[in-house]
C-alpha cells in the first residue's frame, strides 16, 4: 500500500458517509408480505399493471378499445392512475 492510497481510503470513506447523510432510517414505507419486507411502490406498481390489463380486457369486451386513438397511452395512464389511487388510499395521509 502506497502512501497516497493510504491517505485516499479515509477520504473516500468520509466522502461516502457524507453522501449518505440524506438517507434516513424511516425512508420508503415497507410492509411484511410473505415473510419479506416489500416497498410500497412495488405493490402499487403491480396493482397498476394489473388494473391496466383489466381495463384492456374490459374495453375489449365492451368494444371501447376499437374507438380509442392512443391505446398505449390510455392504458398506461389508467394503470398509473390506479397505482396512484392505491398509494393515496393505502399510504396517504
UniProtKB/TrEMBL annotation:
It comes from the Bacteria. Keywords: Cell membrane, Lipoprotein, Membrane, Palmitate, Signal, Transmembrane, Transmembrane helix. Its main location: membrane. GO terms for cellular component: membrane. The keyword Lipoprotein applies. Belongs to the YtcA family. Pfam families: Ytca. It is found in: Membrane. It is a multi-pass membrane protein. The keyword Lipoprotein applies. The chain crosses the membrane at residues 40-60, 72-90. This is Uncharacterized protein YtcA. The lineage of its organism: Bacteria, Pseudomonadati, Pseudomonadota, Alphaproteobacteria, Acetobacterales. InterPro entries: YtcA.
Amino acid at each position: 500500500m502506497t502512501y497516497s492510497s493510504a491517505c485516499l481510503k479515509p477520504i473516500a470513506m468520509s466522502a461516502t458517509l457524507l453522501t449518505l447523510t440524506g438517507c434516513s432510517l424511516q425512508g420508503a414505507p415497507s410492509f411484511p408480505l410473505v415473510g419479506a419486507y416489500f416497498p410500497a411502490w412495488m405493490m402499487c406498481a403491480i396493482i397498476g399493471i394489473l388494473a391496466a390489463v383489466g381495463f384492456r380486457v374490459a374495453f375489449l369486451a365492451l368494444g371501447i378499445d376499437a374507438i380509442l386513438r392512443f391505446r398505449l397511452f390510455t392504458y398506461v395512464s389508467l394503470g398509473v392512475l390506479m397505482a396512484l389511487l392505491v398509494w393515496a388510499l393505502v399510504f396517504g395521509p
